[in-house]
Amino acid sequence: xxxxxxxxxxxxxxxxxxxxxxxxxxxxxxxxxxxxxxxxxxxxxxxxxxxxxxxxxxxxxxxxxxxxxxxxxxxxxxxxxxxxxxxxxxxxxxxxxxxxxxxxxxxxxxxxxxxxxxxxxxxxxxxxxxxxxxxxxxxxxxxxxxxxxxxxxxxxxxxxxxxxxxxxxxxxxxxxxxxxxxxxxxxxxxxxxxxxxxxxxxxxxxxxxxxxxxxxxxxxxxxxxxxxxxxxxxxxxxxxxxxxxxxxxxxxxxxxxxxxxxxxxxxxxxxxxxxxxxxxxxxxxxxxxxxxxxxxxxxxxxxxxxxxxxxxxxxxxxxxxxxxxxxxxxxxxxxxxxxxxxxxxxxxxxxxxxxxxxxxxxxxxxxxxxxxxxxxxxxxxxxxxxxxxxxxxxxxxxxxxxxxxxxxxxxxxxxxxxxxx
Length: 421
Ligand code: PMP
Prior knowledge:
Blueprint: H1 8-13, E1 21-22, E2 25-26, E3 28-29, H2 40-53, H3 63-83, E4 91-94, H4 97-112, E5 118-122, H5 131-140, E6 143-147, H6 157-163, E7 168-174, H7 186-195, E8 199-203, H8 215-218, E9 222-226, E10 237-241, H9 243-248, E11 259-262, E12 267-269, H10 283-299, H11 301-320, E13 325-328, E14 339-344, H12 349-358, E15 361-362, E16 364-366, H13 371-377, E17 382-386, H14 393-410
Parallel strand pairs: 3-15, 5-6, 5-7, 7-8, 8-9
Antiparallel strand pairs: 1-2, 4-10, 9-10, 11-12, 13-14, 14-17, 16-17
């Protein structure tokens, strides 16, 4: 049992892949910001769906189709509950955060943005929360602006206060940075945006898996997240949108299942969310997502948050004590999610990740789809570790020992002393 009330030994038994060894070492999976592992309950739910309930949704009157529809729509109700949305109709199933943001950039932005309107982003955005807006800006004549990031890796709130103006049509902001772990003061920013008439979209790909989030309490207009980053299968994600906004939004793409009536020259749309889900959706993925959300809810997001915060403190303390290691992002008592980026002096992040892999430690190295932030940090890439509920103190110790091995291989001057296998 961890100090924060999560029984990690028991949680680890729920994740079959954690029994794997890599090169004779126990798997230490610290690449959860990229994607998390899946518990047995989620894997079993997929098998059970295909063995017992598989059929297409919404279109059949036969038993299997009714069962599949009930499971699919049941997952929507669970997702609404998990995110604090009052109306399951405000939950659109997508392939993930990227598709959710694109849906707003194409569906809402095309209709509502005028030349000169401003879309406010930040320097710490993932490319998934930049490129869709660049495309929308090109199409509408809207202008992109970026809230700067301070040297400590926080949003510059003074600048944010000046940049959110009556010209701001939309603030599209990451809840938790996938590089720095910074948790942005989104409640304050939403209030500010609201007072100046702007809408707010939260990229909560890293936020939703790591702390309780309530879209109703936050009063955000849109929120995007990915199932695969919170124990669910790949290929399923969520866009939450305020019902009154979704109601007025045109679907950016069309197909079966989203229309009321079709005639030769046109069609009229079904109500949200189905208006935005043309074609056969990822039915089993949604079912798996529902089970993953049940699993996370049973652990308790507050406990998950405290657990990851303790592991993050342990990792920060350990990394900061190693000479030649630079840690990026906020330190001290600042709110920070379970994501830590660092570099080892003179050693390329890919080499660090490769040496760590030799001892079974999986981390990510690269720009993490955040090239604007890399530029701000003055680096080409970082090594990133990120936590999930099944990580424990022993994982952090193995990571820190692995960095010791990096130093053995490369020396303090970064000159390689030994061959990599
Ligand atoms: N935003 C953030 C903050 C992310 O971390 C990620 C995934 N790395 C995404 C967006 C994109 O998520 P997906 O690839 O699941 O669409």
